[in-house]
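Q: My labmate handed me this sequence with no annotations at all. I'd like to see what the chain might look like in three dimensions before we decide whether it's worth expressing. Could you predict it?
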Amino acid sequence: MSASMQPRTTNAYYLQAVLSFALATAALAIGIVYLPVDPWMRGFLAVGLLYEITAAFTLAKVIRDRQEVGEIASRVDQARLDKLLAEHDPFRVDGI
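A: Here is what I predict for the chain of 96 residues:
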């Protein structure tokens, strides 16, 4: 698959993902701020929220990197096959 044929996300889908992430993070942060608990508990929950966000970004990057490696290997294999097919002459007789 060439680079121009790779599926792309639409601007609307990208915007929805960004807004959804921002809304979920803001809602949870507001919930932590207004939670009727001691400040140290609120701090613990805030650190947990930040850790969860960084873990989600790390997981997304690892998944994307593994997918890209698979695509690169597939393109290398396809290039090798294309080269073999281009060099193959079905009318050539070996040994004569």
